[in-house]
Amino acid sequence: MIAFDFHIVLPIVGVAFVGGIIGLDRTAAGQFMVSQPIVAGPITGWMLGDVTTGLVIGAVLELIWVLDVPVGTFVPADSSVGAVSATAVAILGSGGTASPDVSGFSILLTTVMVPLTMMIDVIVRKQNSGLAEYVLAAPGEDVSRRLALAHLSGLVIFFMKSFILYLIVLPAGLAAVLLFARMPTQFHSAMALFVKLLPLLGAALVARKLSIRTLDHFLLMGFVTAAVFTQFIHIPALSVSVLVIIAGLLGVRLSER
Amino acid sequence: MNDDRNKVETSEMLKVFWKSFLIQASWSFDHMQSLGFAYAIQPVLRKLYPDQAEYESRLRAHMEYFNTQPYLASFILGAVARMEQDRALGRNSSTDVLSLKTALMAPLGALGDSFFWGSLKPFSAVVAVSLLMANAWWAPIVFLILYNVVHVGLRAEMLFHGFISAGDAAELIARYHFTKMAKLFKAVSLTVLGGILGMLPTWRLEFKMALPLPSAVSTFAGLLATLILVAILRRGGSPVKLMLGLAALCLALAYGGVI
Asked: Could you tell me which chain B residue has the CA closest to the CA of A208?
């Protein structure tokens, strides 16, 4: 664990800046899914010298939030802020490579922050109404120029929202990690277990949204295929992943007949 | 009247394509993508209406309320470009153009939400997580490729298809089989998800649990725990509440001396 000093300011500002850029991909620009936890987490980890922590945190948060989607006026949880913050807090709070307990605690911290990030997102989107009013309220003026100015200002607003949020959340998270270091051993064991159990919760959230059945037959087919190839035929895990995808495609073909 | 000045060229369509990636830059609850749509269609209007007053009038007309799935907005942009071209040639009216926009945005919004957010995204994510659990560090790259080959490819094709078909939504649905593809992606996602659970003993080190059980039993326990969580979710419960509940359970197990 590290204490607060000047040297931590630079990585915090760096993560806030890159996080702000990544955050634009959520709504304002492109939507190439660079902002998804499975990408945003490793990018943050790579920046701070610990890609593995970014991959681990990104993978679990991806499963948990992947089907929390923006339909109509619904503003989903900001999983990008969650992934970037949790990864940065875990790595910076560990002073290098993050341990599983610190990763678990960082994920828990960002989970608590979810309602706050959603609230800030809603405020920004309400404020954006002023941009359209700025363009529409000036008849006779160069509407083309005003449109470009107002519309592209939205990018700056969305960027600043994330950038400022990171500048608040990251130091607060690091302060919490310093307190976490003083917690009893049981607390650390609990957070290490929390990380290991999160993929099961993520899988449940995805299964719940993709199927109306509690035990879907495609899910069962994938489970049996992977279990047989892994435990009885002892095929490497990566090959099993590919075989399961093929099994899924074949299953769809068969179910269509 | 019928000269090149009234024809939309590929160069304008490419500008529209580029600008369509920023369609949500000023997203707001009141106006949604209205400014984004006007911003994206601007190059076409600039080409078709050399008269500044008419250009501004058309631009303002496109600042009315607009909201759809951002990727399928490409189809509407293409269709509107074609309708504006026809209008400039005197073949239809302003009302026709705006009616087409209004008629397309809601059904395409629902179609796009279900296909892109509800099936392609979870499919790409679940495949990537499966690879990651099998220790493939390059899983995020696979995620981006799987998603964006479909996303960017369709975005480009639909812009031009919208222009050529003049916004024929029935043909769009028949051509791209969105519903069938969504069903396929969902089924494969569920299979891969089951595969992730079936591979539990070989999960990467960070997720490995040292359970005093044979690997077959721990794998089955993982599936059972997931199904219990699915059953809890069916009775209501948000991801945040479940994560907090899981953390509380871990604390209880730690303080109870189980771990």
From this structure: B230
